[in-house]
Amino acid sequence: MRKSPIASALFSRTQQRLLSALLLNSREPVYSAELARRFAVRPSTLQRDLSKLSLAGIINLSRSGNRAYYQANENCPVFPELRSLVLKTCGLVDFLHDELALFAGRIIVAAVYGSVASEMETSAGDIDLLVIGTVKMMDLVPMLERATGQLRRQVNPTIFTPDEFCQKARGSHFVRSVLGKPLQFVLGSRRDLEAITGRKPHHRGTDQPD
Amino acid sequence: MTWKQLLAENRITAEPTSRTEIRDLRGVVLRNLADAQITGLSEDGRFSHAYDAVRILANVVVRASGFRVKGEGGGHDNTFLALKVAAPAFEKMAVYFDACRRQRNNFLYERANIVSYTEMEELLWEVSAFSLAGDAWLQKHHPELI
């Protein structure tokens, strides 16, 4: 999950992860141990925040046997506002992942670059998205429309085939500067980028883990 | 969006067109399409010519509908908003062309050589499809302007 300055000012890292996981997939009850597995933490780490969110009525707790399941409470009076806030801040990569997963077989790497990836974005800035694969811009049109509707922000994809990206990694200032800066990976990883370019790029800063 | 909303937001103005204006605009489209086919040009350059063809074609549809686009720098964004209203069948294309508009702004004002061969080729393909569809739309809805 990406770090967002706005979300960080309002919620702890654990709360951001929980809100993103539960509010953006509100129809799916999630077993608490499954959440812990996704975040690579111990279940006890999440317990305090899950209880707080549950007591506040933001999420619902249900039990089946000895398992505790959590689900967003869509009847919570601030559910739409809270979901929208999460979507526009820390839930951005999750949104893009869900949209681009439809083309997973045709996309090797998708990553957010530019000011959003560097956490220097203004609230209304466009989201720059690098896509390497065989997908076409026209295929991404429904995603662009949903991004405008749900995120209230424009997504600007730049699409390369792996061959062209490999070739431009040697000479294009744009591609080299993208490779040299932090990226937020939506699909694939920096290792996949290295496999495409055939070498390890020198990049400054740290990529944000998914 | 509707024509009424676009007028209220000062994005367009009502203004009838003429057969001569439409003919002239289509002439510019053909010239830009021919320029976009020049293989010696850069990807950015070919993309730019193809984009200009798309924008003017979209403008042909808007002008034929009896409106003129307003806005800073020629109101490119308003052109594609108006295209959706003029011909809902072109809605998906209009969203795609608006993404191309942002990509063009990106390479004109922010990042050189950002356009890939893949994107340039796709736009050339889509502009040809739009050209045919635009002519068919004009023939059907405004044959008096051809």
- Mean pLDDT score of chain A, rounded? 84
Please provide the ordered H/E string of secondary-structure elements of chain A: HHEHHEEHHEEHEHHEH
Residue share in β-strands of chain B: under 5%
Largest interface: A-B, 20 and 19 residues
Helix and strand topology:
The complex is a heterodimer of chains A (210) and B (146).
Chain A: H1 5-10, H2 13-23, E1 30-31, H3 32-39, H4 43-55, E2 59-64, E3 67-72, H5 79-88, H6 92-100, E4 107-113, E5 127-133, H7 141-151, E6 155-160, H8 162-171, H9 173-179, E7 184-187, H10 190-197
Parallel strand pairs in A: 5-6
Antiparallel strand pairs in A: 1-3, 2-3, 4-5, 4-7
Chain B: H1 3-8, E1 12-14, H2 19-36, H3 43-64, E2 67-69, H4 76-86, H5 91-110, H6 117-141
Antiparallel strand pairs in B: 1-2
Helix pairs in contact in B: 2-3, 3-4, 3-5, 3-6, 4-5
What does this entry look like structurally?
The complex is a heterodimer of chains A (210) and B (146). The termini of chain A are close together. Chain A is elongated. Chain A has a four-stranded mixed beta sheet with strand order 6-5-4-7, sandwiched between helices. Chain A folds into two domains: 5-77, Arc Repressor Mutant, subunit A (Orthogonal Bundle), CATH 1.10.10; 88-197, Beta Polymerase, domain 2. In chain A, strand 2 and strand 3 form a beta hairpin. Chain A contains ten helices and seven strands. Chain A has helices at residues 5-10, 13-23, 32-39, 43-55, 79-88, 92-100, 141-151, 162-171, 173-179, 190-197, and strands at residues 30-31, 59-64, 67-72, 107-113, 127-133, 155-160, 184-187. By secondary structure, chain A is an alpha+beta fold. The two termini of chain B are 28 Å apart. In chain B, helix 2 (19-36) runs antiparallel to helix 3 (43-64), helix 3 runs parallel beside helix 6 and helix 4 packs antiparallel against helix 5. Chain B has a two-stranded antiparallel ribbon with strand order 1-2. Chain B contains six helices and two strands, in the order H-E-H-H-E-H-H-H. By secondary structure, chain B is mainly alpha-helical. The radius of gyration of chain B is 15 Å and the shape is globular.
